[in-house]
Every structure is written in C-alpha cells, then in structure tokens.
Amino acid sequence: MSMTKSCKSTGEIKQQFSIGVNDVTRVLEQMEPISESGKATQDSTIGCGGCKDSLLQLQAVLLSSNCDPRWLAKHVPSLASSRGVPLIFVKDKKGGSLALGELVKLKTAIVIGIKAKGSGINKLVAEILEKI
C-alpha cells in the first residue's frame, strides 16, 4: 500500500508531509525539545514569534541515506532525536532520494517529515514504527 494513495493532490501531500531539508528543519526547530527525563521543556516557544505552525508535530522523519553532499542534512538526525521524533533512513537500489521523491510525487527528496495529523498515513507509520 502506498503512503500517498489517499493523497490525491499536491496540496493534500503538502498538508501531510514536510518536504525538504529546510521545511523539515523549520518544523523540528518549532517543536518542543525533550529533556533528559523525556518531558518537553517549557521555554521552547521562544523565538517562534507566535507562528501558527508552532503546534505542528512530526510523527517521523524519513532521511535519504545517500544524501550528497552529506553536510546538507547532517543536522537532521540530532535535531530529530532532541525532539523525540523517530528517524528512518531510506536506502534502495535507486538511491534513497529518488525513492523519497516518488513518495511525494517529486523527482527527488532528501528529507521528508510525516506530520502527525491522525490520518490513515499516520496509522500506517505507527504500525511500521511498532515493528522496528
């Protein structure tokens, strides 16, 4: 079953996914960091400027394992970890960025964040994460 099967248009895809290094980084930075005890910190909204996306959460981040140059997405694993967001490395015969691009109907994508919206895609991702 394709994760984008229920997303019919590009607009619907953009509502369900954060696509690209910049967009995923922005959403992760707006999420509350977790402390060592596993709880979110209180001062994490400083610097957000009251943006409406501050409540946006990512369920998981998909990262191409063949990102070139590597420094482009080097910060994503540590940022996702600090926010308690699972990171899934994607690699296949085509190259991870091509596989991720197909997922969101683009030629390539280095990083995709799956937004927690309670959709069918989120249920599928939750099942996958339970098995890992």
UniProtKB/TrEMBL annotation:
Record keyword Ribonucleoprotein present: yes
Domain called Ribosomal protein eL8/eL30/eS12/Gadd45: residue spans: 58-115
Domain of life: Eukaryota
Any Pfam family the entry gives: Ribosomal_L7Ae
Keywords per UniProt: Ribonucleoprotein, Ribosomal protein
Protein name: Ribosomal protein L7Ae/L30e/S12e/Gadd45
UniProt source species: Thalictrum thalictroides (Rue-anemone)
GO cellular component, one term: ribosome
